[in-house]
Every structure is written in C-alpha cells, then in structure tokens.
Amino acid sequence: MTKLKQDxxxxxxxxxxxxxxxxxxxxxxxxxxxxxxxxxxxxxxxSTVMQAxxxxxxVGMIEARPQSGFYISKxxxxxxxxxTRTKPSxxxxxxxxxxxxxxxxxxxxxxxxxxxxxxxxxxxxLPHKELTNIMKKVLNMENTDLMEYGDxxxxxxxxxxxxxxxxxxxxxxxxxxxxxxxxAAEGMSLALRALxxxxxxxxxxxxxxxxFMHLLETSKVFAMELPTCPEDGVDIDDxxxxxxxxxxxxxxxxxxxxxxxxxxxxxxAKKEIVDICSRFNVPIIEDDINGDFALYGKRxxxxxxxxxxxxxxxxxxxxxxxxxxxxxxxxxxxRYFDKIMKQKIASSLASNVITQLTFAHYLASGKYPRHxxxxxxxxxxxxxxxxxxxxxxxxxxxxxxxxxxGFVLWVELPEHIxxxxxxxxxxxxxxxxxxxxxxSTQEKYNNCMRLNCGYPLDERIEKGIAKLGELCxxxx
Length: 476
What we know:
By secondary structure, the chain is an alpha/beta fold. Among the domains are: 3-72, Arc Repressor Mutant, subunit A; 145-366, 3-Layer(aba) Sandwich (Aspartate Aminotransferase, domain 2). The protein has 15 helices and 17 strands. A hairpin with a 3-residue loop joins strand 1 (62-65) and strand 2 (69-72). Helix 1 packs across helix 13, helix 2 crosses helix 3 (46-58) and helix 6 crosses helix 12. It is globular.
C-alpha cells in the first residue's frame, strides 16, 4: 500500500469522528467507538484506527482513559457558535486602507515569525522538486525564444493546458480567449482597469480579501460591501437591489471558498448571480484562486460555467497550489478580451515563458489531480486541528468559521476586543496574524482576525496559537 493510500485510510477514520461531533452524534465526554468496532465498521486494520485516534488525541479532540478507551475531550470541545451573516453599511465608500495593508504585509514576511498571517501553504506540501525537474527539461530544449519576450497573450501550450483544465471543471472556454498573467493579482488589476474609471462603483462581499482593498484604492474607485453569509455568500436580493439602484461597473467576488470567510455559493445562487449581473450589464470579476481547495468533496463549479454572453472574467493562478514564487496565473476574458489585452500590454507586455511552459508540462503530465488530493488531505487536517486549538485557547464567546475549502479561519472575538492592538503585541512575541479591519473598506471587523492554516500544527505553531489566545483573553 502506498503512503498516500495509508494517509487516506487513517484520515478517513478521523473524518468519521469529526463528522459525528459536527452532527452532534458525539458530545464532550462521550466514548468513541472501540478500535475493534471502528476497524470492522470501516473495513480497515486496527493499527490504522489506532493511528487515527492518536492523531485526534494529539490535537486535543479525544483523550485516552486507561482500561476504558477513547472519549471526546471535555477540555477542548465546547459549544461552538457559528459566524453569523455580516451587516456592512450598503453605501458607496472610497477605499483608504493601503497604508495599513502595507504595514501588516511587511510584518508578516519575517521568517522568524510564526506564520499565522499570510495565507500560504507550507512549501513542504508543494511539488517544488517536480517543478524544478520539469523546468530543467524546458531549459534544455535549446530554444533561444525562451530567453526573449514571449507572446503577450501567453505561450500557446500553456493556454491550451489551462483551457483543458477549465473545461474539465465544467467550463466552456477556448485557449484563444485566455491571457497569461503574473499571478492572479495582475489579472485582477488588468480586469479592474479595463472595466472602470476613477469614481466608478464596484460591488464586493463583506468581508473581502484585503488585497482587493489595495487594488480598489489605487484604481480610485468606490466600493459597496454587501452582507455576506459565511456559508452561502452574498444575499442575492441585496445584489439585485444594488445592481438595480446604482450604475455598478463590476462585481468582484470569490464564489468558491472566499477569503476570509471560506464561503461558497450554492449552484442555484451562482446561476442567479450570473443572470442578475447580465440583466443589468454588470461585469463579474471571478477570483477562483481558492477553488481547488475543496476539503470535503468535489470542487464547486465556476460562475464562468453559467456565463452565456461573456460577462464573466475568470481569474486564477497556481500560487497557492503549486508555487507562489513562479508568479503565473491566467485570465479568461469573456467579451472583454480586447480591453484587457490593451491593459496587459501597458502593464507588463508579457509573462515569463519558462514558468508558463513549466506549469503547462506539469498539467500535461496528469499529476496535478493527484497532487491536489494529497494537498487537500493535509490542509483539511490542518484546518480541523487549528480550529480545535483556537476553541481551546481563545476566550469564551469566540466564534470560528467552518469552511468547506481553503485554508484560512475567520475568528470572531467578543466585540470589545480590538485585534489591531493585539496585532502589535503578537508581533513582539514573533507571532503574525491578519487583523479583521483590513478586510473591509469600512471601519468594521476590528474584533476579528484571519488565521493561516497552511502549516502543520507542530509544537511551535501550537505555542503561537496558545500565546495569541492568552493575549486575547487579557483583553476580556
């Protein structure tokens, strides 16, 4: 049996226990099924069940009692209040958060700091060795064109592989309408500049990824935040009314595992969003960078799947799943291809051909789906482990998101706690996290924080979460 299959088996057993707790079949203090019974019920060896139980014990979910068996931990599992629907002010505002964002980003990249801030997975989870070997082969092709400017739109082989990948995910796209970008960030910038002028209005979820704040501010546009449910995204009626009432120039959204809430739109809602925006001629900028991080089943479909008239601009990259440093993403431009190509020429002229071809050959090898299964298996375990530790160490009344995908947690503390103050205290203790205030154009979410779960929960990480919890409890 391969290592991956072994991992899958014992994590499968862990999932059974986690789901029993989520569904309130097991409560704190209840005895979990014996090793023998779980072995028989799940068709795995007793040693596999033991491995799973030991993992659950290591993160504090269950505890062993001599001569009695394993029980759901009373110390670490308490009543869990869910994050509620957000309620931002639904008025256009000008964005002024870039200075705050820059300060926080500078602090979070220190390698000596416990990495609970930037949303990045551990490099140990990514196939850097395989990518390096492929890049060497690309460079050995003795093609001098690799050292020159490439096609502004992107290498044809790369665009073909992206089109194949997107079509396999239920979209209907052609390589000729795809543009290679320097990461998803450039794609977002190109789309926004192609669609808006200073003073225009853009709709967005609330909270939204803080990188959008910097982008909106530098574009000098106004933003309107829409109330957002941590499970189902923005309220469809609110979106409809905003599109009807205002001259909206774009709707900026992350439909699959949005950052920071982890929300995903139901399929019917995705269809409605595309229909509403098409009816009011509001272009959709779809950021799908987290779409491949489906932790509990099949990835969700894209808004692009329901796009019949080219109104959706689809953007993504492999920065989270393969390599952040190689800076390659892509954009499916819909009917805005010409406008976006003009912006691409003005912005960067072209993207790195060598890295495009490296990713293209990796996709063509068929290894990406297998890598994703392994990656998501690990990330899922991280998210569950971090959640348990937050519930253990943070003050009473703390709420934690329960994402079905992605690798960040949104933590909501009692209202009087200001995480901007805690941020500086945490940094002095060599711990980073992302304060909630930078995920909004408004003065909101000061009592919230986002935690990165991209690294295994080792002793150093747990100490960081424990210290962070201590700092929060001191504010109660």
